[in-house]
Amino acid sequence: MLSELRDSRELFDAVLKAMADMVLVFDDQGRLIYYHLPPDNELVLPQERWLGLSYREVMPAELGASFDEALDCTRLGRVATLEYSLETRRGLRWFSAQISPSLDCGRYQGAVAVVRDIDDHKRALGDLKLAGMLFDAAIEGVCICAADGTILTVNPAFSAITGYTAEEVVGRNPRLLKSDRHDAAFYERLWRELRDMGHWQGEIWNRRKDGEIYPEFLSINAVSDSNEHLSYYVGVFSDLSAIKLRDDLIRHQTYHDPLTGLPNRDLFEDRLSAAIAQYERQHRLFAVVMLSIENFRQVNSTLGHVVGDQLLCEVAARLRQCVRAVDTVARMGAERFVMLLLPTGAGVSDVLAAVGRLRESFGDPVQCFGHEVFVSINMGLALYPADGHDNLTLLKHADLAIQHARGRNACRFYSDEMNVTVCRRLELETELHHALEQQQFELHYQPVVAACDGRISGAEALIRWRHPQRGLVPPGEFIPLAEENGLITAITEWVIGQALDDLERLAGLSVSVNISARDLEDERIVRLLERRAAAGTLVLELTENTLIERRESVLACMASLRRRGMRFSIDDFGTGYSSLSYLKRFPLDYLKIDRSFVIDLPADEDSSGIARAIIGLGKALNLALVGEGVETREQFDFLVAEGCEFIQGFFFSKPVPIDDFLKLPARFALPA
User: Fold this and answer.
1) Superfamily of domain 262-434
2) pLDDT digit string (tens) for 9-67?
3) Could you name the CATH architecture of 2-118?
4) Contact, 449 vs 668, CB < 8 A?
5) Where are the domains of the chain?
6) Cα 216 to chain center, whole Å?
7) CATH code 3.30.450.20 for 138-244
8) What does 9-75 look like in DSSP terms, one character per residue?
9) Is cis: bond before 385, omega within 30 of 0?
10) Pick from 47, 133, 352, 526: most CB atoms within 10 A?
């Protein structure tokens, strides 16, 4: 019996030693009769001298009162639990006590308290609660994803920024926010850094639920477990839209004129420097145009500064309308503006065209708060690289040029040679407007001769401008001007009408008229053709480039005119796209070999090869072939030998007025 008791006591001690909890045993009066403390406990009590003392004598009053309630529960046969804090060697710590009744044959003997240090757990719960509060209250969006990228949870700020509720995104992949503003290489770098470093941060553009694209600053961290296995990705991001908007506003205010909204001098000089750096390598021409409102100070003094400010805004708007998106219009201060006209390929012609648009734009008065103000602008131009190679020189020379501009909407180049050119062009442009009214245009006709028998089968109508002072003005001078200032449609309409009138005198010959594909989109010209053109008498010549640019829009019109008996010819074939597909699709009758390929025949092998290829192509497509620009016997012989059916050029006749054309023989003698 004693051996069993000893074994039982040793087993009880072994169990207590294995426990990490404290054990306190109280009798039915609440006196401490036994205790067990783990070796690493931090309590300043109990000690052996406190055995036999009531818990009231060793506990703080507040804790003692709680124990009163707990022991009352045990006397009723129930288990009580209690959480309390107590001062220890490491400061105030939290404990949890489970107090159970001790019974002997059903009779209450006291209570046993098992006490556990829960301070670390309590603090962890507090930290977790705090983290949850921070998660919900954070102004940054938070997205937690599983290792496979599936969204596990998001915070309210995520929903506020993206527009997606938690229910809409949980279980989906964050790529639903993708904006498509970043290429694949961007995301490859992001994931590579995230795999290698465990984190990534930077600016990224994403898309809200409503489709709006917005910038954000995103930080992603990879979270691993104790075994270094990836568990989660935590993404934290903030919306940069307001910051970007503020930065853009500050940047705009820094580099733009507050009144007109135009770039200011600093931004203009920055763009001018960039243009010099770019076009210095390409050796291309561009222009700096200084502009001044001639009567601005008078407007300010008579009508007031409010009207003056409105006038400046209206002038700025008109200037913007006169240039392309790639050009720059800036305000230099007061009534001074400046333009940067970048090259497009036509060189000085582009600059002169812009000057023409500016002069035309300020031909009408400006409305300012009920006042009608007639504005005159003076222009001074400096060309790169002829008039300067740096910002300071170009601006100085444009400023010097404007000081010599005199007259309404006057223009002055820094270079005297350029002034002569531009003055002639501007004069010509003005006179061109009167040429139609004063019937200064006339048609000359060049015969198209059948290669087989020398018979004149038709003629090409070519416009000439007989200027009262300058004499005959070459088409190369006034046709580009007409295209730039919008007169070309009226001129084309006149050419067609005059050619139709002359057809009555040409004894059944067909007449070719040069038009552009754009003309076939003009209702007036189309109605004129449909109303007056007789079947088989009119051939419309189009260049291949303009035809391809508008292929779909003119195809139906060409088919309609073809049904009315009109025929079509491709002019200058081989000098443009030379697309075989449009030759097949469009209703064509003639294919003209451009004079640039004829001029070196037959000596030049390349020209000979191209001419043969065009003739072969025309035959394969059942198109009649016309060789134009033929001037020599050798050219004539080569084309005829290769199968060209019609010949046009000085070899038979230069273009002549209709009266002289009617004097030509009906059949030319062919070389033996």
Assistant:
1) Reverse transcriptase/Diguanylate cyclase domain (3.30.70.270)
2) 566 666 666 666 888 888 888 888 888 777 766 665 555 667 888 888 878 888 888 88
3) 2-Layer Sandwich (3.30)
4) yes
5) 2-118, 138-244, 262-434, 436-661
6) 20
7) yes
8) HHHHHHHHHH-SSEEEEEETTSBEEEEE--TT--BS---GGGTT-BHHHHS-HHHHHHHHHHHHHHH
9) yes
10) 352
